[in-house]
Structures are given as structure tokens and as C-alpha cells.
Amino acid sequence: TCGFILVFLIAFKLADLTRVVFYLLAYPELHVVHSFPLWEFCCNTNRFYETIGSGPAVVGIFLSCYFFLQSFFLLGSTVWPKNALIKTFAAGVCIFVSYILIAVLCLETILPNNFFMTEPYINREASSDWLIFITSFFALFNWVLAYFRFKESEIINRW
């Protein structure tokens, strides 16, 4: 999993440099073709996105969400031996949609009809910490479940 991130970032950078070289060779009169600032995007040093926050919290959110999705699809591959990617994706969409619908229905029953928040009551640092914690917890949970499923199917040797 960590090796994949490193290989993906290297491949992304090489593809971007290939794009830059191709456009500079095809259009030598253009001086506005630049490489994508990948490090600034990952570390949010130039404020690419303002909604989540800045600094190491954004990198932590991206990494924890990546590990959660990777563990979710790993667990899906242990549950469904054939067409695991499609079935896991469909199950994830169904879980996500049902979660959103249940949350909306609960909020409609609890909150009054004209409820409107005028001030942001959500602490961004605390919410990003909770998001990292929850996605990391579920990633570990999925990995443990996948381990036991692999062990059950005797892919992992027992001593």
C-alpha cells in the first residue's frame, strides 16, 4: 500500500513531465506550460483547497482515506471471489447512499423545519482529526477482517 502511493506519485510526476515536454516541443512559442506543483498540492503550501484546512492535516486526511478505500476493496476481494471490484464498488455506493438517506431522515425528524445555522459551529481542526481517526479505525478494522478471511480460506499459512 505505501509502495503503491510512492510508485503512483512517481508515475504521476513522470506523466506530467512528459506532458510538459510534449507541449514545449509542439508549441515552442508558448511560455506558460509548466509542470504541476505536486508537492505544493500535497502539502497545501499554495492554498489549492481551502475547505479542509492546511498543513499536515490535509495530508493525513488524504492518506487515511486512501488506506480506508484500499482496505475496503481488499475486504471486498475476500468476500466476492469473482468480479470483486464491481461488487465492492456497488456495495460501497449502496452503503454510502443508505447512510446519507438515514442521516437526512434523522435530521428531518429531529430538527425543526426552519432550522438554519448562521455561524460555523464546527471546529475544522477537530473535525479533521476525527475524520483521520475514524477512517484509520475502519481501515484497521477492514484489514483485520480481511486477514481472518484470508486465514479462513488458507491463503495465509497457519503454523
Rounded Rg: 21 Å
**Major sheet size, sense and barrel closure:** none
Q: How many β-strand runs? A: 0
Oligomer: single chain
Mean pLDDT: 80
Uncertain stretches: none
Relative helix content: 55-70%
Q: β content, as a range?
A: under 5%
Helix-strand makeup class: mainly alpha
What sequence of helices (H) and strands (E) makes up the elements?
A: HHHHH
Tell me, what's the shape?
extended
The end-to-end span amounts to 26 Å
Discrete helix count: 5
Keywords: Membrane, Transmembrane, Transmembrane helix
What does this structure look like?
The protein has a domain at 54-152. Helix 3 crosses helix 4 and helix 3 (56-79) runs parallel beside helix 5. It is an all-alpha fold and 159 residues long. The two termini are 26 Å apart. It contains five helices and no strands.
Short description:
The chain crosses the membrane at residues 57-76, 88-110, 130-150. This protein is an all-alpha fold. It has a domain at 54-152.
Detail the topology: elements first, then pairings.
Elements: H1 2-26, H2 38-43, H3 56-79, H4 84-110, H5 124-152
Helix pairs in contact: 3-4, 3-5
Transmembrane segments: 57-76, 88-110, 130-150
Keywords: Membrane, Transmembrane, Transmembrane helix
Key phrases:
about 160 residues, mainly alpha, about 70% helix
